[in-house]
Design a protein that fits this description.
single chain; alpha+beta; five-stranded mixed sheet; four-stranded mixed sheet
Length: 330
């Protein structure tokens, strides 16, 4: 303890703990398909069945029975185990009026929820294992990447999140034969993209839509807009360029534990997808345990673990929206 603080009463022991930056995670779980998998096997293979086209017109009362084929492929998901633990000094527990065990456990739970969102985003934008055996690497379809320059202001090369990019995203779903009337797309953006929307007349002017995209009366919320739901989070990956996702560049050195802009492009990979686009396999779900450790002077120890993995199921159902957060002049 520093000399300045050594003989002073430090407020905090008699009040609730005030936490610093803590990004909330676990926002994407409800937006994708969930599976429990097999507790005793780390890999699961999931079938994809398709039988497109139209039925055969009947032209004969006693004609041959029609036969059609259904195509199928598989997607493979591999779960990994994650764990974390923290010790709590017995003297701190005695002096603090608040329950430090619950506080520390909550901090760790947020780590796991952030990790869950990151793994899902890696699956949505990264390479998926597909094919008949679920072993063929299937890269993200670059045709599903919206042009980063779309809607750029006069004299600028790139653009942030623009009305034109939203329209292009919806159009791409239509071109991919994704029935977004039956499956509402979720569009994941960061706070910078939300700021872009608040500055864009096409999002807030009622001349463009019966309801504005950003409802200022309800705070920073975005209602269902043009048939899409919006999710705002700081857990959103960056891009090395307009077509390359940095899905491995996670900043694990800071307390927030989110994505890192290793290439300093400041291009964020906003994304849109429907629920069938990805599968998240969890087994077991988050398990917690708080106990006194006899081998550590009977101090309290909080432990958290879970096992999860994710895979992109269908390329057509994911659209990436590169957004330059600091576009340069041309």
């Amino acid at each position: 303890m520093s000399t300045d603080l050594q003989y002073k009463y430090v407020t905090g022991f008699d009040r609730n703990i005030r936490r610093t930056t803590e990004v909330k995670g676990g926002k994407l779980r409800s937006k994708v398909r969930l599976a429990t998998g097999d507790l005793y096997h780390k890999e699961g293979v999931y079938e994809l069945m398709s039988g497109g086209g139209l039925p055969t017109k009947k032209t004969n009362r006693f004609g041959d029975s029609p036969v059609s084929e259904s195509d199928y492929t598989r997607r493979r998901v591999t779960r990994a185990d994650y764990e974390d633990g923290q010790f709590m000094d017995e003297s701190d527990i005695i002096r603090m009026a608040t329950d430090i065990k619950a506080e520390k456990l909550d901090v760790m739970l947020q780590k796991f929820k952030r990790n869950e969102d990151i793994i899902l985003q890696q699956a949505l934008l990264g390479s998926a294992r597909g094919g008949d055996d679920g072993e063929t690497a299937t890269a993200f379809d670059t045709g599903n990447i919206v042009d980063v320059t779309l809607g750029a202001a006069s004299g600028f090369t790139n653009a942030g999140f623009t009305y034109e990019k939203l329209v292009a995203t919806i159009t791409q779903f239509g071109n991919n034969n994704v029935d977004i009337e039956m499956m509402t797309p979720t569009i994941v953006i960061s706070w910078d993209q939300l700021n872009d929307m608040m500055q864009d007349e096409k999002f807030i002017n009622f001349d463009y839509s019966r309801v504005g995209a950003v409802d200022r009366k309800m705070g920073l919320t975005i209602p269902n807009y043009l048939g899409c739901d919006f999710l705002v989070t700081n857990i959103l990956p960056y891009m090395a360029d307009a077509t390359t996702f940095n899905v491995a560049d996670i900043d694990i050195t800071t307390a927030t534990g989110t994505w890192a802009d290793t290439d300093s492009t400041d291009i964020r990979a906003a994304m849109a997808f429907v629920q069938d686009a990805a599968l998240l396999e969890i087994n077991p779900d988050i398990k917690t345990n708080v106990a006194q450790r006899s081998d550590k002077s009977f101090n309290w120890y909080a432990y958290v673990m879970m096992s999860l993995g994710a895979v992109r199921m269908e390329e057509e159902k994911v659209v990436a929206i590169p957004c330059d957060q600091s576009p340069a002049a041309a």
